[in-house]
Amino acid sequence: MTMTYSGTTALITGASSGLGAEFASQLAARGSHLVLVARRADRLEEVAQDLRSKHGVNVTVLPMDLGRPGVGRELLSELSSRDITVDTLINNAGFGTHSAFVDEDPEVIASEISLNVAALVDITRAFLPGMLSSAKGALVNVASTAAFQPIPGMAVYGATKAFVLSFTEAVAHETKDSGLNVLALCPGATRTEFFDVLGSQSAAVGRMQTSAQVVGTAIKALDRKGTPGSVVSGWVNRVAAGFAQRLPRAVTVAIAARAVQDW
Protein backbone atom coordinates (compact mmCIF):
# COMPACT_ATOMS: atom_id res chain seq x y z
CA MET A 1 0.00 0.00 0.00
CA THR A 2 1.53 3.28 -1.13
CA MET A 3 0.33 6.41 0.62
CA THR A 4 -0.04 9.26 -1.89
CA TYR A 5 -0.86 12.11 0.56
CA SER A 6 -2.50 13.92 -2.38
CA GLY A 7 -4.80 16.67 -1.15
CA THR A 8 -3.76 16.24 2.49
CA THR A 9 -1.70 18.62 4.62
CA ALA A 10 1.46 17.83 6.57
CA LEU A 11 2.84 19.91 9.44
CA ILE A 12 6.62 19.58 9.74
CA THR A 13 8.64 21.04 12.59
CA GLY A 14 12.33 21.82 12.21
CA ALA A 15 11.62 22.15 8.49
CA SER A 16 14.29 24.69 7.50
CA SER A 17 17.00 22.10 6.80
CA GLY A 18 18.09 18.48 7.18
CA LEU A 19 15.47 15.82 7.82
CA GLY A 20 12.66 18.36 8.09
CA ALA A 21 13.36 19.85 4.67
CA GLU A 22 13.73 16.35 3.21
CA PHE A 23 10.39 15.25 4.66
CA ALA A 24 8.86 18.34 3.08
CA SER A 25 10.38 17.47 -0.30
CA GLN A 26 9.31 13.82 -0.30
CA LEU A 27 5.79 14.50 0.96
CA ALA A 28 5.31 17.35 -1.54
CA ALA A 29 6.38 14.96 -4.30
CA ARG A 30 3.44 12.77 -3.27
CA GLY A 31 1.01 15.68 -3.42
CA SER A 32 0.88 16.82 0.19
CA HIS A 33 0.33 20.47 1.03
CA LEU A 34 2.69 21.65 3.74
CA VAL A 35 2.97 23.74 6.88
CA LEU A 36 6.64 24.38 7.64
CA VAL A 37 7.67 25.46 11.13
CA ALA A 38 11.11 26.53 12.34
CA ARG A 39 12.86 29.62 13.72
CA ARG A 40 14.61 30.72 10.52
CA ALA A 41 12.03 32.56 8.44
CA ASP A 42 14.34 33.24 5.49
CA ARG A 43 15.39 29.62 5.17
CA LEU A 44 11.80 28.39 5.53
CA GLU A 45 10.70 30.66 2.71
CA GLU A 46 13.50 29.37 0.47
CA VAL A 47 12.36 25.80 1.06
CA ALA A 48 8.72 26.78 0.52
CA GLN A 49 9.34 28.60 -2.76
CA ASP A 50 11.32 25.67 -4.13
CA LEU A 51 8.58 23.17 -3.28
CA ARG A 52 5.78 25.36 -4.64
CA SER A 53 7.66 25.66 -7.92
CA LYS A 54 8.55 21.97 -8.24
CA HIS A 55 5.34 20.34 -7.04
CA GLY A 56 2.55 22.93 -7.23
CA VAL A 57 1.48 22.38 -3.62
CA ASN A 58 0.38 24.94 -1.06
CA VAL A 59 3.10 25.72 1.47
CA THR A 60 2.43 27.75 4.61
CA VAL A 61 5.44 29.11 6.49
CA LEU A 62 5.29 29.68 10.26
CA PRO A 63 8.50 31.04 11.80
CA MET A 64 8.25 30.08 15.46
CA ASP A 65 10.31 29.09 18.49
CA LEU A 66 8.74 25.80 19.57
CA GLY A 67 10.39 25.60 22.99
CA ARG A 68 7.58 27.44 24.79
CA PRO A 69 4.79 26.07 26.99
CA GLY A 70 1.48 25.71 25.15
CA VAL A 71 3.02 25.74 21.69
CA GLY A 72 0.75 22.95 20.49
CA ARG A 73 -2.41 24.90 21.22
CA GLU A 74 -0.82 28.00 19.73
CA LEU A 75 -0.06 26.18 16.47
CA LEU A 76 -3.49 24.59 16.33
CA SER A 77 -5.21 27.94 16.90
CA GLU A 78 -3.11 29.65 14.22
CA LEU A 79 -3.84 27.00 11.62
CA SER A 80 -7.54 26.84 12.53
CA SER A 81 -7.76 30.59 11.95
CA ARG A 82 -6.38 29.95 8.44
CA ASP A 83 -8.80 27.05 7.88
CA ILE A 84 -5.93 24.56 7.61
CA THR A 85 -6.49 21.00 8.82
CA VAL A 86 -3.44 18.84 9.52
CA ASP A 87 -3.55 15.19 8.41
CA THR A 88 0.14 14.34 8.88
CA LEU A 89 2.46 15.56 11.64
CA ILE A 90 6.25 15.22 11.47
CA ASN A 91 7.79 16.14 14.84
CA ASN A 92 11.39 16.66 13.74
CA ALA A 93 12.55 19.73 15.68
CA GLY A 94 15.23 19.04 18.27
CA PHE A 95 18.88 19.42 19.14
CA GLY A 96 21.61 17.75 21.19
CA THR A 97 24.37 18.69 23.60
CA HIS A 98 27.72 16.97 24.01
CA SER A 99 29.74 17.18 27.21
CA ALA A 100 29.81 15.77 30.71
CA PHE A 101 26.44 16.49 32.31
CA VAL A 102 28.02 18.39 35.22
CA ASP A 103 29.57 20.84 32.75
CA GLU A 104 26.43 21.57 30.75
CA ASP A 105 24.63 24.91 30.90
CA PRO A 106 21.39 24.47 32.88
CA GLU A 107 19.50 26.83 30.58
CA VAL A 108 20.60 24.92 27.49
CA ILE A 109 19.58 21.65 29.13
CA ALA A 110 16.14 23.08 29.90
CA SER A 111 15.76 24.22 26.30
CA GLU A 112 16.83 20.80 25.04
CA ILE A 113 14.22 19.04 27.15
CA SER A 114 11.56 21.60 26.27
CA LEU A 115 12.06 21.18 22.52
CA ASN A 116 12.89 17.48 22.28
CA VAL A 117 10.24 16.29 24.74
CA ALA A 118 7.70 18.84 25.96
CA ALA A 119 7.03 20.50 22.60
CA LEU A 120 6.79 17.15 20.82
CA VAL A 121 4.23 15.87 23.33
CA ASP A 122 2.29 19.14 23.36
CA ILE A 123 2.09 19.37 19.57
CA THR A 124 1.15 15.72 19.24
CA ARG A 125 -1.65 16.09 21.79
CA ALA A 126 -2.98 19.21 20.08
CA PHE A 127 -3.21 17.69 16.60
CA LEU A 128 -3.84 14.00 17.30
CA PRO A 129 -7.65 14.23 17.65
CA GLY A 130 -7.98 15.86 14.24
CA MET A 131 -5.59 13.41 12.61
CA LEU A 132 -7.49 10.47 14.08
CA SER A 133 -10.70 11.91 12.66
CA SER A 134 -9.32 12.24 9.14
CA ALA A 135 -7.22 9.01 9.22
CA LYS A 136 -5.59 10.08 5.95
CA GLY A 137 -2.02 10.62 7.05
CA ALA A 138 0.58 9.78 9.64
CA LEU A 139 2.30 10.82 12.84
CA VAL A 140 6.10 10.57 12.71
CA ASN A 141 8.20 11.45 15.74
CA VAL A 142 11.93 11.61 15.07
CA ALA A 143 13.79 9.70 17.77
CA SER A 144 17.34 8.37 17.30
CA THR A 145 19.52 5.31 17.71
CA ALA A 146 20.57 7.20 20.86
CA ALA A 147 17.25 5.99 22.30
CA PHE A 148 18.46 2.41 22.72
CA GLN A 149 21.09 2.94 25.42
CA PRO A 150 22.24 5.59 27.91
CA ILE A 151 24.99 7.74 26.40
CA PRO A 152 27.59 9.22 28.77
CA GLY A 153 28.67 12.49 27.20
CA MET A 154 25.19 13.01 25.72
CA ALA A 155 23.14 12.05 28.77
CA VAL A 156 20.28 14.49 28.26
CA TYR A 157 19.99 14.03 24.50
CA GLY A 158 19.94 10.23 24.77
CA ALA A 159 17.30 10.37 27.50
CA THR A 160 15.06 12.69 25.47
CA LYS A 161 15.21 10.34 22.49
CA ALA A 162 14.50 7.32 24.69
CA PHE A 163 11.39 9.21 25.82
CA VAL A 164 10.36 9.91 22.22
CA LEU A 165 10.71 6.25 21.27
CA SER A 166 8.76 4.98 24.29
CA PHE A 167 6.06 7.62 23.96
CA THR A 168 5.53 7.07 20.24
CA GLU A 169 5.38 3.29 20.43
CA ALA A 170 2.76 3.59 23.18
CA VAL A 171 0.66 6.03 21.11
CA ALA A 172 1.03 3.73 18.09
CA HIS A 173 -0.48 0.88 20.09
CA GLU A 174 -3.28 3.06 21.48
CA THR A 175 -4.26 4.15 17.96
CA LYS A 176 -3.55 0.91 16.06
CA ASP A 177 -7.15 0.46 14.92
CA SER A 178 -7.70 4.08 13.91
CA GLY A 179 -6.28 4.13 10.38
CA LEU A 180 -3.61 6.66 11.37
CA ASN A 181 -0.05 5.41 10.90
CA VAL A 182 2.15 6.26 13.91
CA LEU A 183 5.91 5.82 13.67
CA ALA A 184 9.03 6.59 15.71
CA LEU A 185 11.90 7.12 13.27
CA CYS A 186 15.32 6.24 14.69
CA PRO A 187 18.18 7.49 12.52
CA GLY A 188 21.84 7.14 13.36
CA ALA A 189 24.45 9.67 12.27
CA THR A 190 23.02 11.73 9.40
CA ARG A 191 24.51 14.44 7.19
CA THR A 192 22.61 17.41 8.60
CA GLU A 193 23.39 20.52 10.65
CA PHE A 194 22.92 18.48 13.85
CA PHE A 195 26.64 17.99 14.45
CA ASP A 196 27.39 21.65 13.72
CA VAL A 197 24.97 22.63 16.48
CA LEU A 198 26.35 19.88 18.69
CA GLY A 199 29.85 21.26 18.28
CA SER A 200 31.53 17.89 17.81
CA GLN A 201 31.85 15.24 15.11
CA SER A 202 32.96 12.57 17.59
CA ALA A 203 29.33 11.66 18.30
CA ALA A 204 28.80 10.68 14.66
CA VAL A 205 29.02 6.95 15.38
CA GLY A 206 28.71 4.48 12.50
CA ARG A 207 28.15 4.93 8.80
CA MET A 208 26.77 8.38 7.98
CA GLN A 209 23.47 8.39 6.08
CA THR A 210 21.93 11.14 3.96
CA SER A 211 18.67 12.85 4.87
CA ALA A 212 17.11 11.28 1.77
CA GLN A 213 18.02 7.79 2.98
CA VAL A 214 16.60 8.37 6.45
CA VAL A 215 13.35 9.92 5.25
CA GLY A 216 13.08 7.19 2.63
CA THR A 217 13.18 4.63 5.46
CA ALA A 218 10.26 6.39 7.16
CA ILE A 219 8.21 6.67 3.97
CA LYS A 220 8.71 2.97 3.20
CA ALA A 221 7.62 2.05 6.73
CA LEU A 222 4.49 4.19 6.37
CA ASP A 223 3.72 2.50 3.05
CA ARG A 224 3.67 -0.95 4.67
CA LYS A 225 0.31 -2.57 5.28
CA GLY A 226 1.18 -2.88 8.96
CA THR A 227 3.28 0.16 9.83
CA PRO A 228 5.59 -0.68 12.75
CA GLY A 229 5.61 1.47 15.87
CA SER A 230 9.27 2.26 15.24
CA VAL A 231 11.94 1.81 12.60
CA VAL A 232 15.73 2.17 12.65
CA SER A 233 17.25 3.64 9.51
CA GLY A 234 20.19 1.72 8.02
CA TRP A 235 20.99 -1.97 8.46
CA VAL A 236 24.18 -1.29 10.43
CA ASN A 237 22.21 0.88 12.84
CA ARG A 238 19.52 -1.81 13.13
CA VAL A 239 22.13 -4.39 14.06
CA ALA A 240 23.73 -2.05 16.62
CA ALA A 241 20.34 -1.20 18.15
CA GLY A 242 19.56 -4.90 18.41
CA PHE A 243 22.81 -5.60 20.23
CA ALA A 244 22.20 -2.66 22.58
CA GLN A 245 18.89 -4.20 23.61
CA ARG A 246 20.40 -7.64 24.22
CA LEU A 247 23.73 -6.90 25.90
CA PRO A 248 23.96 -6.26 29.65
CA ARG A 249 23.11 -2.65 30.42
CA ALA A 250 26.54 -1.86 31.90
CA VAL A 251 28.20 -3.11 28.71
CA THR A 252 26.08 -0.96 26.41
CA VAL A 253 26.76 2.13 28.54
CA ALA A 254 30.52 1.52 28.43
CA ILE A 255 30.47 1.00 24.65
CA ALA A 256 28.43 4.17 24.13
CA ALA A 257 30.79 6.17 26.34
CA ARG A 258 33.85 5.12 24.35
CA ALA A 259 32.06 5.85 21.09
CA VAL A 260 31.05 9.45 21.73
CA GLN A 261 33.35 10.97 24.35
CA ASP A 262 36.20 13.10 23.07
CA TRP A 263 37.60 14.41 26.36
What best-fitting shape do the alpha-carbon axes yield?
A: globular
Tell me the CATH superfamily: NAD(P)-binding Rossmann-like Domain
N to C succession of SSEs = EHEHEHEHEHEHHEHH
- Number of helical regions: 9
Can you characterise this structure?
One of its GO terms (molecular function) is 3-hydroxypropionate dehydrogenase (NADP+) activity. The protein has helices at 18-29, 41-55, 71-81, 106-134, 155-174, 194-198, 211-223, 235-246, 249-260, and strands spanning 9-13, 33-38, 59-63, 88-91, 138-142, 181-186, 230-232. It is of the alpha/beta class and 263 residues long. The protein has one domain (9-260): Rossmann fold (3-Layer(aba) Sandwich). The protein has a seven-stranded parallel beta sheet with strand order 3-2-1-4-5-6-7, with helices on both faces. Helix 3 packs across helix 4 and helix 4 (106-134) packs parallel to helix 5. The chain is globular. It starts with 8 loop residues before the first strand and ends with a helix. The mean pLDDT is 92.
Reconstruct the topology from this structure.
Elements: E1 9-13, H1 18-29, E2 33-38, H2 41-55, E3 59-63, H3 71-81, E4 88-91, H4 106-134, E5 138-142, H5 155-174, E6 181-186, H6 194-198, H7 211-223, E7 230-232, H8 235-246, H9 249-260
Parallel strand pairs: 1-2, 1-4, 2-3, 4-5, 5-6, 6-7
Helix pairs in contact: 1-2, 1-7, 3-4, 4-5
Quickly list its features.
9 helices; Rossmann fold; 263 residues; alpha/beta
Compact overview of the structure:
This protein is 49% helix and 13% strand. It has 263 residues and is an alpha/beta fold. The longest helix has 29 residues.
